[in-house]
């Protein structure tokens, strides 16, 4: 099924679960890949690709936490960027859907990612380039294009991310919107067990970002926050989306083991039933 | 015997200019012609010589602060927004510290990013080995899609900017700190071409960077002793002009490589790999042999590591007598 037109919150929720189902089937078929992050961010991807907040004719969506790619592939396919059947080729030889994103493998994959932190800098450079080009047309009524960059909370442990924040704030890139999928787990453990941040919001604010915090698995709330982020000025905005790792499948939720565990056939069937897809 | 197509008439008594300075001049020239050129640095505008570009085109210049990894990512992003970024730092920091960003954000993505590594080699002198980029050729040439260029003088460095701009894809440009002979004619730089500056039948001296001029002088001295050297400037390390190297090795049967870089992974490896596969030839590699440089006046450092002309000449003579 391909989705078009204006979507209600209920529609977006349904799409999010469909994307979750796609992810689990891809990972099961490939017998590899990541689960918890793609599931925790499914509501976000539903909003970004189907919620009408992003202008696909000029805005760019950058996935910095590259291991989330099954959810982006699923969203791109369901949005008509390539045939949905192609999702079955995830990670296979000759596929346009490699294990981590490679820029241009299919339309809509803007950056090569996987080593965490890199996409945050690249998104910053893209937003800077858009600002620079816009200067030339400052008298026109052209709407400024934006970059939406999705990152994960384990990713915040990479120093490069904070280098990029410094620069994006210094350059006042208010056409740059970060969305942090804060699912609180990473490959080995809970984020809080591995690297304690104190207050994430406070740290981000201290770096000069506009910070908005919300429930990232609540379609209505998250959509409102992203819309609000578009109105923020003078600095890039970070939407801290508090989510649950493995969201939508009871036995996968909030368990670090499901970061990159492959569901068995049995588990897949159970999960798809829970997701109602 | 000397190729006056490439060498200026007064090449034996040339003026001096730093290779980094020539590169900076090239940026101003090409930046004036191409509005999509942008320049980045990580708090090293002055010493990497991109300051002049910044003064001419401030709106297209970005100092990211001391953050080389972010500099490379931002450069990749700018290229995706339609610009042609030149990102400049010391070679030991970028590509040194920013290697993985160059690998994934630039090379895997085929981003149209140009990377300038200044203060390459032990010729950067007094700041010592932590600041001497002596592994950058190895780090860059191993990456798929990357072009690796090491100009021999300021004139070539100036012309390389336009060549790098015209090449769609990642390019690494190696520059050096000291004032060194500016001995080549102002010509268009050709990526993938090795420049033969002297014809000889006895031995091939294959060099890059500052060492090309030294090779010419050593060849001049050896000629007085009856040894005719061929001198080849491999300023395009990747892609390599294999035909010119193979033709010379076939003629002389003896090859010496000279570089201010680790011979393991550097020009010495490049030539050894080519000859090993295509035309097995015993070669001598002059450069840093699995050691760091040291702090000091750069000419003194060259003496200490065997890169001064006297040492190079002696190494060539020893090799001839092996």
UniProtKB/TrEMBL annotation, chain B:
- Check the record and name the SUPFAM superfamilies matching this protein: Thiamin diphosphate-binding fold (THDP-binding), TK C-terminal domain-like
Q: Which Pfam families match?
A: Transket_pyr, Transketolase_C
Keywords from the UniProt entry = Thiamine pyrophosphate
InterPro entries xref list = PDH/Transketolase, THDP-binding, Transketo_C/PFOR_II, Transketolase-like_Pyr-bd, Transketolase_C
Q: According to its UniProt record, which cofactors does this protein need? A: thiamine diphosphate
Give residue ranges for domain Transketolase-like pyrimidine-binding.
17-182
Entry similarity comment: Belongs to the transketolase family.
- According to UniProt, the name of this protein is Transketolase
Q: Which organism is it from?
A: Candidatus Collierbacteria bacterium CG09_land_8_20_14_0_10_46_12
């Amino acid at each position: 099924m391909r989705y078009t037109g204006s979507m209600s919150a209920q529609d977006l929720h349904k799409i999010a679960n469909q994307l979750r189902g796609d992810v689990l089937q891809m990972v099961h078929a490939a017998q590899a890949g990541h689960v918890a992050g793609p599931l925790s961010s499914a509501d976000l991807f539903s909003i970004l690709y189907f919620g009408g907040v992003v202008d696909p004719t000029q805005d760019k969506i950058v996935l910095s936490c590259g291991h989330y790619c099954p959810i982006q592939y699923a969203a791109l396919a369901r949005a008509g960027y390539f045939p949905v059947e192609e999702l079955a080729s995830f990670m296979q030889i000759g596929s346009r859907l490699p294990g981590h994103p490679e820029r241009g493998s299919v339309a809509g994959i803007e950056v090569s990612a996987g080593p965490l932190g890199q996409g945050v800098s690249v998104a910053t450079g893209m937003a800077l380039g858009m600002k620079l080009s816009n200067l030339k047309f400052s008298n026109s009524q052209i709407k400024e294009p934006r970059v939406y960059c999705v990152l994960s909370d384990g990713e915040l442990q990479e120093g490069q991310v904070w280098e990029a924040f410094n620069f994006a704030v210094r350059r006042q890139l208010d056409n740059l919107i970060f969305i942090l999928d804060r699912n609180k787990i990473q490959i080995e453990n809970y984020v809080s067990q591995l690297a304690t941040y104190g207050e994430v919001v406070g740290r981000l604010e201290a770096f000069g970002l506009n910070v908005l915090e919300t429930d990232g698995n609540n379609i209505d709330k998250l959509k409102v926050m992203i819309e609000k982020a578009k109105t923020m000025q003078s600095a890039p905005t970070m939407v801290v989306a508090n989510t649950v790792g493995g969201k939508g499948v009871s036995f996968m939720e909030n368990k670090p083991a499901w970061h990159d565990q492959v569901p068995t056939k049995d588990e897949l069937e159970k999960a798809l039933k829970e997701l109602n897809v | 015997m000397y190729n006056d197509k490439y060498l200026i008439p007064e090449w034996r008594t040339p003026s001096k200019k730093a290779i980094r300075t020539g590169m900076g001049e090239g940026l101003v020239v090409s930046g004036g012609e191409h509005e999509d050129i942008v320049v980045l640095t990580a708090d090293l505008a002055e010493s990497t010589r991109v300051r002049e570009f910044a003064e001419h085109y401030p709106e297209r210049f970005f100092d990211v602060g001391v953050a080389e990894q972010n500099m490379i990512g931002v450069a990749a992003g700018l290229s995706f927004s339609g610009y042609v970024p030149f990102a400049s730092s010391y070679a030991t920091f970028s590509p040194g510290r920013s290697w993985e960003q160059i690998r994934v954000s630039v090379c895997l993505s085929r981003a149209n990013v140009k990377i300038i590594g200044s203060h390459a080699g032990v010729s950067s002198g007094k700041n010592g080995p932590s600041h001497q980029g002596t592994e950058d050729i190895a780090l860059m040439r191993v990456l798929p899609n990357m072009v690796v260029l090491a100009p021999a003088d300021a004139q070539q460095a100036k012309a390389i900017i336009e060549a790098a701009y015209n090449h769609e894809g990642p390019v690494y440009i190696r520059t050096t700190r000291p004032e060194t002979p500016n001995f080549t004619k102002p010509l268009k730089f050709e990526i993938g071409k090795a420049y033969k500056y002297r014809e000889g039948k006895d031995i091939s001296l294959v060099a890059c960077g500052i060492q090309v001029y030294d090779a010419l002088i050593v060849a001049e001295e050896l000629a007085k002793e009856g040894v005719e050297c061929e001198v080849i400037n491999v300023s395009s390390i990747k892609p390599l002009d294999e035909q010119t190297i193979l033709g010379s090795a076939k003629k002389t049967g003896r090859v010496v490589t000279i570089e201010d870089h680790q011979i393991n992974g550097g020009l010495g490896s490049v030539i050894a790999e080519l000859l090993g596969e295509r035309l097995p030839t015993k070669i001598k590699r002059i450069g840093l042999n699995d050691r760091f440089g040291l702090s000091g006046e750069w000419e003194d450092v060259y003496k200490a590591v065997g890169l001064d002309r006297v040492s190079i000449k002696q190494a060539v003579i020893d090799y001839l007598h092996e």
